[in-house]
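Annotated sample (chain length 310).
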Amino acid sequence: MPPTTTPDVLPTRISTAILNLLLPHHRTADQGPASAERFPHQLRQIADFVRDDAPVTFTLPGFPCKSPNPAKVLGHLPDQGERLSLGFLNALCTEIERIYPPGARMVICSDGHAFGDLIRVPDEHIDAYADELRTLMDHSGLTRLSVFDLRDVFGDLPHDTKRAHLHQSYAPTLDALRAEVRADDNTLALYRGITRFLVEDTADHAGTRSALQRECRQRAYGVIQRSRAWGDLIADHHPRSVRLSIHPQPIGARKFGIRLLDAPDAWTTPWHSAALRRTDGTWTLMPRAKAAELGRLIESDDRPSHFDQH
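Output written by the structure step:
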């Protein structure tokens, strides 16, 4: 009689424990809490690292640049919203290290250059934003975080050339994307969310609102094409990584949506808003103009940082 094989229980147990640390921060439009078992893709990926006794690598596309709308943000450089979000991500890696000694690392895949021309943000502002993220990580001792951007792939090529290479190599066709928006509710929600951001972020449009909305709907397709391209490029450069997303994701999707900070809207991010410290010491994100009504401006390192509620 052949011996009974021992199931591969330890990596499964550890990967479940790691995923349980992420679940309280899951960003999804689905209702109700979900157990780790409903995320088989992520469990398999994490277990692969555990079997190798290697740090779990997460990739998070995001932190592109600040919105160009001054009613939403305090400027074009990272502020308290980014500081809090990066601190949260580093702390999450530290928590993982407590239950899994090899720990975890988080690669922030700063994607501003991928679609800077479409969101109308100058490339020098995008470079300054990503450089400041790196400085923040260094000065705050966020040793489990790093930044990856198009400069790491294409070096000092002109920004438009980098975008062209990215688009040609990885972007889905416009026809395929339009068909997906028509057929898939999650892609439709993403398309509508990006269109809304583009409308809100346009501070100097001289024409009618309907003309602006038409233009932003077209640009939204381009943003999604480049975002998809960026995601595929990340997969090529970090093939084993566990893919996180700042957008809401369905339970069990191949990307795990993660909430960085408290906000009234599931789509709000630190780069589209300002941080407000409530009177009870908790933080939330909201448009700068609204935060200014509720609190007083606080500076840090001679730059606007956040608001303290009255």
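Annotation: DSSP finds eleven helices and nine strands in the chain.
Annotation: Residues 209-237 form the longest helix (29 residues).
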